[in-house]
Design goal:
Rossmann fold, 10 helices, three-stranded parallel sheet
């Protein structure tokens, strides 16, 4: 978000996450209540006016039904990381923020697999949150494939991989303009440092269990992109 905010053709609201399309907001928010977040866009010296298409930050809890009703011509961008690693990191962050009720990731996984945790009863379903096929297919039932762009976290944070080129093409930006004026290696290193906190290692048995469960989702994303994702393990 920081690097995009510096781009002369992109406007990012000061509020970190708008969350207008989150399901829990459906009954108590209106477009007018969030439009103020974008007021500053018209007062900023942009080379190109902000297009009507909006970019939505996707999460399983965000509702494409409402998103499409409010912004049917939007461009939707997802940034995905290895789902096994993401599930474990999400659990650890929830634990730190005291949103998780158990101390052991394996116990949380067991509870979800046993049906004691379901998406209908809790947001702490770490497997469900990373079943990419379920969520991406839901979004693609409302937005055409050409309006949905998928970035791979391990690629765009890799200094040896031109991970922003596809995004620049998708948004109609000049090639190389996103990281222009920045030390690419230093910037991407700082991103990794801020997002990859040190957590206890995931047990080998649980990792193998999740790899087996989420293998279909890795394959689904690979098929959507038309290529293997070398940064993701395939078991």
């Amino acid at each position: 978000m920081q690097i995009l905010d510096e781009h002369p053709q992109i406007f990012i609201p000061s509020r970190k996450e708008n969350q207008f399309f989150r399901q829990s907001q459906i009954t108590d928010t209106t477009p007018e209540s969030f439009r103020i977040d974008f007021e500053d866009a018209v007062h900023t010296e942009y080379k190109i006016r902000i297009p009507e298409d909006r970019i939505l930050h996707g999460e399983p809890e965000y509702d494409p039904v409402r998103a499409h009703a409010g912004c049917p011509h939007a461009k939707v961008i997802f940034t995905l990381r290895d789902p096994t690693k993401r599930a474990y990191i999400q659990f650890q962050h929830a634990l730190q923020e005291k949103k998780e009720t158990v101390k052991n990731f394996e116990h949380a996984v067991e509870a979800e697999l046993a049906g004691l945790r379901t998406p209908e009863t809790t947001g702490r379903c770490w497997i469900y949150k990373n079943q990419y096929q379920t969520h991406i297919e839901h979004w693609l039932s409302f937005y055409p494939r050409e309006k949905v762009f998928i970035m791979i976290y391990e690629e765009w944070t890799d200094p040896n991989f031109n991970g922003f080129k596809g995004l620049e093409d998708f948004l109609g930006l000049r090639a190389g303009s996103i990281l222009e004026g920045h030390d690419k290696a230093a910037f991407l290193h700082s991103v990794k440092e801020s997002t990859n906190k040190k957590f206890p290692p995931l047990s080998e048995s649980t990792q193998e269990q999740l790899e087996d469960i989420l293998a279909v989702d890795k394959t689904y994303i690979s098929n959507l992109l038309g290529r293997q994702i070398k940064h993701w393990n395939y078991m």
